[in-house]
Amino acid sequence: CRPAYDRKKRLYDKTRAILCRRKAAARSMKSTFTQLNWLIRGWINYFKIGSMKKLCQLLDSNIRYRLRMCIWKHWKTAKNRAKNLMKLDVPRWAAFKIAYCGDRYARLAHNGWVQTAISNKRLADFGLISMCDYYTARCVTC
Predict the structure, then answer these.
(1) Residues 78-99, mean pLDDT to the nearest whole number
(2) What single DSSP character describes residue 127?
(3) Of the residues 37, 42, 44, 71, which has the fewest C-beta atoms closer than 10 A?
(4) What is the DSSP letter of 97?
(5) Which residues of 53-83 are buried (b: 16+ CB within 10 A; e: fewer)?
(6) Do the beta carbons of residue 43 and residue 11 sit within 8 Å?
(7) Worst-scoring range by mean pLDDT, 75-79, 93-97, 138-142?
(8) Angstrom distance (rounded) from CA 133 to CA 130
(9) What CA–CA distance (Å, rounded) separates 12 from 62?
(10) What is the per-residue pLDDT for 106?
């Protein structure tokens, strides 16, 4: 058994509402991570009887992608973006090149340096629960 299409769409819409760049930039990242963790835990605990490992992997990558966009917007100015990228071990030349390029948030969230700086491990250190890991720990059918 698997979650129905409308339930998947509803979860996707809820994650989009939490990770809306406009709202996520206005509140702290800690509260964003808390809301996401509540949503992930609740959804997995409710649907743990179903087989949905592929869905968890897709949603996990989508959540991380949208979080990178929110963090990029949260940094606001190019100067802060370069400074924060350098704090996260990106070389100075690459940090300035990325920070001042003027590309859109979605394009920059897929940039290799941004993905290296805001890696999955760093997001986990910030407090994000991996949906796939939580599902494999809690599922009944694995």
Answers:
(1) 95
(2) T
(3) 42
(4) H
(5) eebbeebbeebbebbbbbbbbbbeeeeebbe
(6) yes
(7) 138-142
(8) 5
(9) 9
(10) 87
Angle between helices 5-18 and 53-74 (to 10 degrees): 20
Backbone phi and psi for residue 138, each to the nearest 5 degrees, phi listed first: -105, -15
Question: Taking the model in full, what pTM does it have?
Answer: 0.88
Indicate the pLDDT class of residue 141, thresholds 50, 70 and 90.
Answer: low
Using CB atoms within 10 Å of the CB of residue 119, give its burial: 0 to 12 exposed, 13 to 18 middle, 19+ buried: middle
Give the Å distances, CA to CA, from 98 to 44, 55, 71, 117, 139: 36, 32, 14, 12, 40
Would you say how long the chain is, in residues? 142
Three-state secondary structure call for residue 6: helix
Q: Which residue has the tokens 């605990």?
A: 45
Reported as half-sphere exposure (CB side, CA atoms, 13 A), residue 121 has a value of 3
Q: What is the pLDDT of residue 47?
A: 85
The rounded distance, in Å, linking the Cα atoms of 102 and 63 is 23
Which residues touch 47 (CB under 8 Å, ≥6 apart)? Answer: 3, 7
